[in-house]
């Protein structure tokens, strides 16, 4: 039995990938149009490839550098195995592969969607959603395949494929954390770099093309127009894919780590039909089934009526989505009942060991699925077309850009209220049900249908691109009408998808945070210690500064683009008449270089700060690893809390501004008057959208990566700060018999031996005072022997001589 | 000796108030001008009085309501004495009195400054700064007088004026917390209401007057112009005064609370020349000396040269400021050496008792003074005229309002970097020097020169008003030139003053936070407990939502004003020709009502949430007060961290936008071209300033009150969550003698009595299992008797019967 279950997720991932391959070849077989359509789509494809190539070059250097650093750590810290480097490279490779695959299919599907829209809307949806499905299954399949395979190999290597002890499994999972770190590092490049790329190209193309030269958007005479379209794929498709790939892997990993500690709490070993590792395998199994259910869900997304509108298309997506979620819910019940012991013991901080029945773990997964659903509705309420908050922004546009901007900012800020209360309730309740294992499984359940979520997400930018191609190749208006319907639905799914990404990042970070605390073996993170509180402040500041850096980067990169487009307009003869050919590649190159250059500083901030804190802590507190671990924990909590807030604020403000601007296209009533595009109010709304663009496409989504990567780095550093104390230090229960009421003086001589790197020294310590004092001194000393964080140090109390 | 020291701050406060009275009568004796000048200034004075009157009416209801609630608490919680209600009313009264005094003198000084500016610049500075001095000394004098008198009376009442025990002193200080709560509640009204008032009037006056009717700013034909000028006093003078009054009182209180715990850590009593309460008296003594040094500082602020420019005026202010800070530094050294024991024992969380020499406490005060100085420079760097960040915003204005807004937001966000690192370093180092007592004393030292800071702050809006009066009464241009010099310096001091206010609020909140933890007697706040972490999230969200509510309130209140001004223009005949008299009072009334109405929701949010958390906690966890106290602590930490970030972000972004706009007055070089007022770039900068206005004058400064009030409410709730465990529950050390290595089973029967409200019941509990198990069960039981948070419950273990 156990052999099947451990391989089951691998099989399911392979099924997902096989289905993806079939779908992919179907999409590629579709008619790719002709003439100008094909030409434009080829430019976009080549531009996307150019970005990928440049990115991979930079990534190679990064991966080498990070591998060396990880190797160094593995030499210093005995419990960190050199295999972490292999896992890291493996994770980076899988993440890059998924990104590559997703971007390629997206840039191939766009033109095919345009072509399909020439025949019918149902066909157009089928093609565009088909492309999205390939993307979604590719990402989810590779994530599960990579993580599970890595786990099986490491489990074989370290434990010969059979349970030995929590300590050994911890080493397996610590090494596996390298896989997650690799995936998330690539996500940093993809999400932040992609966000800068897409907005730099967008702003650059608009400023010179629309404003200075007076040519329409998506005009092929604009040298930056291809870069702009590439940007949609780089940011919305590849960026989102890498983000969710990272969340997916990290969530499952964190749940496995916490599952391992459940086994520890149950006495260090359990008897079940899965080789005694049921709680560790469960999150992988849920992920595996999620892929299958996503496939089923994607098959349900179809419309029949060629006259369908947004509502029907959205409805088709909803059916697929809800069915996959409902199936996941059922699977969670069955799997939890099947794979977990009927009753588990879990350690609750400050409350001791508790008996937790397996049904409570199921309730925790329900919490996760509910959060995933509710967050979408909340996000839609604050950012959707025609909702109260968006209409309020529209009204405020009538008194100028200033009031529009204030209204948008306020909307984004207010939207943190229900969202944070939802998250807080989710943390609290899933913890109440099944401890931090429950929190991690809530996240796992939510992430199970990642493939479906991504399919829905990716279909939006594909349709957007399809519309652009229709426009540029001057198709019949009905074609653009059909792609517009898809694009409009895509805008909604993009906003709700961002909500889902935030929720997943938040729960993932919490699970990682919990895993961190158990890895380091500290007894909680006490913010009443001033250094910890100081780091909470510093952590809270990082997302704010990160966002500002990302926003400034967009500005700088956009200026580079502006100068290049101006130069081409001036130097290429006949470009405006359409006889000269603009140098698209040069603009793509500028966007690419700017994106990769500008993401350095935010990247260094993300990776450097946790390391700097540990170094600073070591400098000040030496070997008090407990305190340093708490400081880093405080920092992680600060980044997570602040990062989640700024992600919600920026995404929702940006989304609301965007749709406030879009409202003018169909006309809006302001003070009893219908107002349209071109009005002063519309211009004010455009200003708001300009502010919102980097919010929602660059800095906002980057927050997800920031918080997850911060927590992952913490997890990888954790062993340095004293994991596995059990293996290093012998727990001792000193027999202290004192009469604390007595005023008589006492003296205790303690003999203890310290073993460091195989060398043993024996020393003596004398405590004097009243009996109560001596007792408390002895107890304090006993405590230090138990929590000494250095792994290669072993303290044994040989003898205690008490004289009353 | 002791009798002198305890009364010394009272005497110094009285000296300060006497000096204030002399200065006040000097200012009032100055020539108040004639004709139109006098008429306009009378309108402003009356408008300010009208606001105060309406505010006090509302406050009366609030104070009555809050008093009833406090009285209810004092009946439920035995250790909360009914006198807390008296202290609360006392604190509210003193704070209101200080605000009243400050606003009256400010509105009397403005016209006298205009008149003085007709003779010379030195005279104008003397008058305007004289008004500021009256304001500063009034606030600081009343704060010290009120707090110290309340302390002396409570000390007499509860302890007969002599040290008995830490527990009794805790009751004194808990009751004294009522004084601080009263002061801070008034500050909430003054700061938030004032912020809404000033911006509603400003925006309303501009939108209809400048934009629709095309008349200049400060034109007496505009019905809202008086409300606008009243707003400057209500927001910048009264709001800032109430804010610092609250910080001042809360800081000293928190330091006293922590001083009390230093005495506890030293064994519960110390021998010194101050009746054994030296550490408690020290913060009051520093505050008292600070008043005297502020007087000396204000006397040094003068210029002689009538041709002086901004630099000389700023220089004069700097001399006064630095001298008062330097004198405070010396006084801190002397007082610390004189009043504290040579060596103290302080309990450091997780590190146990440490010996702390008094010089380390002095170092902590140095940290506070340094932070106060550095924060001003940092704030000036990000917001000052001609600085790099502000010039960058100017450059970005050339590409439109969108890029200007993005640049301003990014500047505000980046400015959190040095500021938060500074705060983090301050927390960490002052704690490292002398524990949380050190943190509180750092704050106390920084706040010691509050009178001087407020004098410098208040002189700005006075000069601003003076300039307005000069304009409206059509004075000679030289008069306006002179007031402009003062106004320009006032703009810089306003921005740095806001930085100082944030720093003081941050350190005060931390000190209160520390006092909270010691009051509740919990052993730290562990964010690894999910409910605590959830509350950290919720706390982090509150400042964001609070800011949004405040911003929306400004918008709503401004619309009320717009409709009223439009109505008057339409309905009052001859108003534009200057023959009809606008109804100023009506506009003042609208601003007043809107401000008071709109501040309700943010106020309820601030006061309601901590209470809701405790109720929710009680509902879920019943009597587990430890956990509920930690949850509230997590909430407080979230509010503080997020509130400080949003305060810095909003204040600095607003300040930077303001000065970016002002840069155009003298002309700026953009892309090699000189650009002035009226250009497109300037218009873009005006949009940025519109966004920044509520940021820097309403929501940003409100953060200070939010975080302090939250922590104060926590402090007042603290006793409910189990303070004074020592008095309620007998600490018992159970003798447990077990052989944990043994596999033999054991049984322990424990007999214990529980006394609740005088009734005693005796029960038995039996533990069975291996010896190790029984031991840990016994220990766990013993622990619950020790931490049972209910004060009226007494658990005594009568007998333990162990059968091995």
TrEMBL record, chains A, B:
Catalysed reaction, written as an equation: Na(+)(in) + diphosphate + H2O = Na(+)(out) + 2 phosphate + H(+)
Activation and inhibition: Requires K(+) for maximal activity.
Cofactor: Mg(2+)
Function: Sodium pump that utilizes the energy of pyrophosphate hydrolysis as the driving force for Na(+) movement across the membrane.
Protein family per UniProt: Belongs to the H(+)-translocating pyrophosphatase (TC 3.A.10) family. K(+)-stimulated subfamily.
Quaternary structure and partners: Homodimer.
Protein name listed in UniProt: Putative K(+)-stimulated pyrophosphate-energized sodium pump
The species this protein was found in: Arenibacter algicola
